[in-house]
Give the backbone structure.
Amino acid sequence: INENKINRNINFLSSGEKQKISLARALFSEFDLLILDECLNQIDEKEEVEIMQNILKEYESKMMIVISHRTNLKDLFPKIAVLTNHGQLKFLKRKEKICLEESLETYLKY
């Protein structure tokens, strides 16, 4: 396959499609730790959850750090950390995780 043709055709993709391609490239490479920083923020939240569920199922033995401003993925992860406006890292307890949308404002104040 001609690399120039591939690169030229990428320009016609939506930003969500480009994110999916970047994510696929990362997942097909060998990794011990994968950091996904807003990796699916250009697609709708429902599809984001479905994709992340599949990733977590397929790569359950791998270590991943997922960074997101959205809270729709919170139930997929065993541990959640919140970076406050003052630069503090707070780890949420299970009970707090359930109410993340409501408690996020509280964490960001401190």
In short: The longest strand covers residues 33-37. The helical segments are 3-10, 15-28, 45-58, 94-98, 100-109. The chain has five helices and four strands. The two ends are 53 Å apart (CA to CA).
